[in-house]
Amino acid sequence: MRRLLALLALAAGPVLVLGVLFVLPVTGMVSEGFFVDGSFAPGAVLEVLARPRVHRVAWFTVWSSGAATLLAVVLGLPAAYVLHRLALPGRAAVRAALLVPFVLPTVVVGVAFRQLLGEGGPLGFLDLDGTPVAIICGLVFFNLAVVIRTVGVAWESLDPRPGQAAAALGASPSQVLRTVTLPALRPAIVGAATIVFLFCATAFGIVLTLGGVRYSTVETEIYLLTTTVFDLQAAAALSVLQIVVVVALLALAARLRATPDPTAHRTVTPVRAVRRGDAPAVVATLVVLVAMLLPILTLVLGSLTVGDGWGLANYRALTTTGDNQALLVPVTAALVTSLRTAVDATWMALLVGVSVALIVTRRSHSVAERRVRSTLDGFFMLPLGVSAVTLGFGFLITLDQPPLDLRDSPLLVPMAQALVALPLVVRTLAPVLGGIDDRQRQAAASLGASPLRTLVTVDLPVVWKPMLAASGFAFAASLGEFGATSFLARDDSPTLPVVIFRLIGHPGEMNYGMALAASVVLAAATTLVMLAVERLRVPGVGALA
Prior knowledge:
Layout: H1 2-34, E1 35-36, E2 39-40, H2 43-49, H3 52-85, H4 91-103, H5 106-117, H6 132-156, H7 161-168, H8 173-201, H9 205-211, H10 218-229, H11 232-258, H12 279-304, E3 305-306, E4 309-310, H13 313-316, H14 331-361, H15 367-380, H16 388-398, H17 412-434, H18 438-446, H19 451-480, H20 485-488, H21 496-504, H22 509-535
Antiparallel strand pairs: 1-2, 3-4
Subcellular location: Cell inner membrane; Cell membrane
Transmembrane segments: 57-80, 92-113, 133-155, 188-212, 232-253, 281-306, 326-359, 379-399, 411-433, 512-533
Pfam family, one: BPD_transp_1
């Protein structure tokens, strides 16, 4: 009982933070949909869900996410094989290059594809700008790394002996792949596809930038209903629908992760030399690499284009407010705001995330204690079940009255971004802390070490690199966060993603050039942070993808 009370006391702080910054906004948002003029009216939600436009939005969300997921799996499987099973020259560099799109802010991805597919772009002749194809290509570009990383790690750990036995019995390479390898990889493939579908269905910046108001998903429709139509009840009803679907997908992903995996508990299989039969997979990987680099290269070149020549005028213009006063503050001021906000969001997410990881990974000494830890673990992962747009909407309608009137607080945006980054921090630290042998802590305690000294001498030496990695994830996530920030950022202190979106919404060659230059700056900042995290080689960090 004493241990249980101590556990509850330790969890009180993080539970209070999550209660105020997550449960309260989400509850307020749900209430907005189910209560009309103070009366419980569930029929209002059904009325919204019966609208023809809502049906079109829901159908577009489902089929575009499904198409993007299918393409990501088809293109990602050969790349996963080549980059994780073959000794290809420059393999590490190619893997890093294919990881970059996943860490780019979604609004930057949208701008890059507009530059690539728009009039005057390298692929402008295809006339795909503003079409569903452009949106699907952007979603595949952003999520391909998830398939490559997840399936590739499983492929590395795959026992080669069943395939070798099948080959010895006369099976061709294609038969071995079809009858042995793919069935063994099925849990990893299905798990990756589930996560990709979730990311696509809740994509915001890419769809809003490439589809505008013509092609909306549930995520962007919530934003448009709130900021343009001012129909909060309809937005709340769609948010409820989205929460139900996202939670179901997360439960499915968790169940798939719990399925016994034939690749578990195996050492990494050494890579082998490239053979003639690997040529199709190698060529497909190189084509994917070129396709992934093309939007980024187009974005960089576009930012350096000035009239009919080249120059840095677009970058110098970042110190201005754009053509016809498109902005209230210069882009450089927005960059400073983004960096300051990211620092605040990082320490907030790290402070709560470390506490949560310590709470849920400590050894339980009773059934009741184990159940409490399991319940707390599920509770702290709840932000994964709500999109950033829904969270920002909840902040907007609930944290605006005393005693929680935070609308004018400079910490409002960092708090929202910290909540978005919290699951990344916990999922980075929890596996590492859970892998520490509890007998080391017991030995330190038996020698007279206090709990704090035990934490410093046993846990800290193991967890400091994962903490740096978690800080990098939180910082990069904050720099590129657009969903919640688009609701909460004030006009006089916007973040860089918000400024980029405003610039592309204002006509003028100067404004568009500034948007390209600002996108390059933001992409470079997030990429540098994530490449630094990648160099830490933290075990289990790859699972985040």
